[in-house]
Design a protein that fits this description.
Largest sheet: 2 strands, antiparallel
Structural class: alpha+beta
Distance between the termini: 20 Å
Strand order of the largest sheet: 1-2
Radius of gyration: 11 Å
Strand content: 15-25%
Helix content: 25-40%
């Protein structure tokens, strides 16, 4: 099982597929990143779909 606290500079991302967590660089997950549309299609990430 993965640690709850990510390594420095990384964050956990709720993928679109239910139950899938991905460790991604924090700078890629931050608002304004060029990766926002990839990680959050239509402005929604996995947390809004299945994480609640």
């Amino acid at each position: 099982m993965a640690p709850r606290q990510p390594p420095a500079g990384w964050t956990w991302h709720h993928a679109q597929e239910p139950g899938v967590m991905q460790l991604v660089p924090r700078v890629q997950h931050a608002p304004g990143s060029i990766f926002q549309d990839v990680l959050h299609p239509n402005g929604r990430g996995g947390y809004s779909i299945w994480g609640q």
